[in-house]
Specification:
The protein is an alpha+beta fold and 155 residues long. Helix content is 43%, strand content 23%. The chain has three helices and four strands. The mean pLDDT is 83.
Length: 155
């Protein structure tokens, strides 16, 4: 009886039928997780790109001309373009006189080189489909912060 069992085990050890099915069953979940993970990361990059495009396009309005000398009209425009509340949009404006930063409404001496700048910052979040441990700067609530900045010299 023992000899018969040993012959049966030897016969199974030499049989390769079904090996590829076992290998596929072991590898399929890994490949599926890899494909879904890449899709999730791609979605995050897509949202980040859309946020950056909203910031860039909003600054195009400032480039066309001013309706308001302090450029505050850009905040609601950026919020609408990015689909975020106005509280998540920041606008920084300043004057540089020979490289020295001053208030936007200040003036430079005649001999100084003058440049006025505005920077628009839009903050948003991305919620990955899976745990965010693979994402840098992930928050405890599972979201990943997205920040888009765009700057423009207006004068």
């Amino acid at each position: 009886m023992v000899a018969r069992i040993l012959r049966y085990i030897k016969a199974l050890a030499g049989d390769a039928r079904g090996t590829s099915l076992v290998e596929f069953a072991a590898a399929a979940p890994v490949f599926a997780l890899l494909v879904v993970g890449i899709g999730d990361i791609s979605r995050g990059f897509s949202e980040r790109l859309a946020l950056q495009q909203a910031a860039n396009r909003t600054l195009e309005l400032a480039h066309l001309g001013t309706r308001d000398p302090d450029y505050n009209y850009l905040i609601p425009e950026a919020a609408t373009a990015a689909g975020v509340p106005q509280s998540q949009v920041g606008l920084d404006s300043w004057l540089e006189c020979n490289g020295t930063r001053k208030a936007f409404d200040a003036t430079c001496d005649e001999a100084e080189e003058m440049a006025r700048y505005i920077t628009l910052t839009i903050n948003s979040t991305f919620r990955p489909a899976f745990s965010s441990i693979a994402y840098p700067d992930a928050r405890p609530d599972g979201t990943v912060p997205l920040i888009a900045k765009a700057s423009l010299r207006v004068q």
